[in-house]
């Protein structure tokens, strides 16, 4: 158990580190009006907090920064809600009560507002759509004698479409395309997107499609891209520019952050069972990623 003094010091370290983005030393804390302790006392307790795993030493500075254990303790026991910030909650309640918005639109608006209020990047990632969503229908609509559109619909009601240009010299006719669509429906309807992607890359589809069209590689590529687009549209990021306004991040750090914020990387992080995930009592998850922590 931590004493009340150590709790106050840990809280001060975390909150000031969040503001300054720099390691926190005992002299800075001693100057805070609500910490009526000497610099030596604070330094002693910071060493104890470090030994218990709540703080960690920064080798480039004499100050200390919060550890993952420290953040978890703070979120569960020390974080307080300031009275002046309570009215902000009504902004979220207003969004939730908008009757013309569906669940997905509400989540997106809340995350955008949260990013604006906190100056942090917020991320929305849906369920692992590859493994839970199934193909409902694949359809073809003729736009003109030279153009058609392939529609792919999944059981969530989401839709992807791709334009196809009909070229007579490649024997790509509407009749042949309809035969291909009929075959694809028989094979893929009811299959998950993940399974459908596997089947599309297999020889069975390739051999069947090339019986009807010569440009089977291009057609398979169009289908593959359409299925992948369901995943790309399954996540949104707000407040990305905040990383460039924070002096704590150097160019290398920003590049690394941009890499993990790529939609494919995010899906790997959130849906990979090998990732270390710290579950907190209030259902907040902390996902350590090198020098970052993703809070979800």
Automatic annotation (TrEMBL):
<dbReference type="GO" id="GO:0045892">
    <property type="term" value="P:negative regulation of DNA-templated transcription"/>
</dbReference>
<dbReference type="InterPro" id="IPR036388">
    <property type="entry name" value="WH-like_DNA-bd_sf"/>
</dbReference>
<dbReference type="InterPro" id="IPR036390">
    <property type="entry name" value="WH_DNA-bd_sf"/>
</dbReference>
<keyword id="KW-0805">Transcription regulation</keyword>
<feature type="domain" description="Heat-inducible transcription repressor HrcA C-terminal">
    <location>
        <begin position="104"/>
        <end position="290"/>
    </location>
</feature>
<dbReference type="InterPro" id="IPR002571">
    <property type="entry name" value="HrcA"/>
</dbReference>
<dbReference type="InterPro" id="IPR023120">
    <property type="entry name" value="WHTH_transcript_rep_HrcA_IDD"/>
</dbReference>
<dbReference type="Pfam" id="PF01628">
    <property type="entry name" value="HrcA"/>
</dbReference>
<keyword id="KW-0346">Stress response</keyword>
<dbReference type="InterPro" id="IPR029016">
    <property type="entry name" value="GAF-like_dom_sf"/>
</dbReference>
<keyword id="KW-0678">Repressor</keyword>
<dbReference type="InterPro" id="IPR021153">
    <property type="entry name" value="HrcA_C"/>
</dbReference>
<dbReference type="GO" id="GO:0003677">
    <property type="term" value="F:DNA binding"/>
</dbReference>
<protein>
    <submittedName>
        <fullName>Heat-inducible transcription repressor HrcA</fullName>
    </submittedName>
</protein>
<keyword id="KW-0804">Transcription</keyword>
């Amino acid at each position: 158990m931590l004493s009340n003094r150590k709790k106050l010091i840990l809280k001060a370290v975390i909150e000031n580190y969040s503001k300054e983005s720099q390691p926190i030393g005992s002299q800075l804390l001693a100057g805070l009006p609500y910490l009526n302790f000497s610099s030596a006392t604070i330094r002693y307790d910071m060493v104890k907090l470090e030994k218990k795993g709540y703080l960690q030493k920064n080798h480039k500075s004499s100050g200390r920064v919060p550890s993952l254990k420290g953040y978890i303790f703070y979120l569960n026991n020390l974080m307080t809600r300031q009275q002046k910030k309570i009215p902000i909650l009504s902004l979220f309640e207003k969004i939730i009560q908008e009757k013309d918005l569906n669940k997905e639109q509400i989540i997106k608006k809340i995350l955008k507002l949260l990013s604006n209020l906190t100056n942090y990047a917020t991320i929305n990632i849906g369920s692992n759509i590859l493994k839970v969503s199934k193909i409902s229908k694949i359809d073809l609509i003729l736009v003109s004698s030279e153009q058609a559109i392939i529609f792919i619909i999944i059981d969530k009601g989401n839709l992807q479409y791709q334009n196809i240009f009909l070229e007579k010299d490649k024997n790509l006719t509407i009749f042949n395309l309809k035969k291909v669509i009929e075959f694809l429906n028989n094979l893929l309807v009811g299959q998950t997107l993940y399974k459908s992607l596997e089947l599309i890359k297999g020889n069975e589809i390739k051999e069947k499609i090339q019986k009807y069209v010569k440009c089977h590689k291009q057609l398979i590529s169009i289908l593959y891209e359409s299925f992948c687009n369901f995943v790309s549209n399954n996540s949104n990021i707000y407040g990305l520019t905040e990383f460039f306004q924070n002096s704590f991040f150097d160019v290398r750090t920003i590049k690394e952050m941009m890499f993990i914020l790529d939609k494919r990387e995010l899906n790997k992080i959130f849906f990979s069972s090998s990732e270390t995930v710290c579950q907190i009592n209030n259902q907040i998850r902390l996902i350590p990623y090198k020098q970052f922590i993703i809070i979800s």
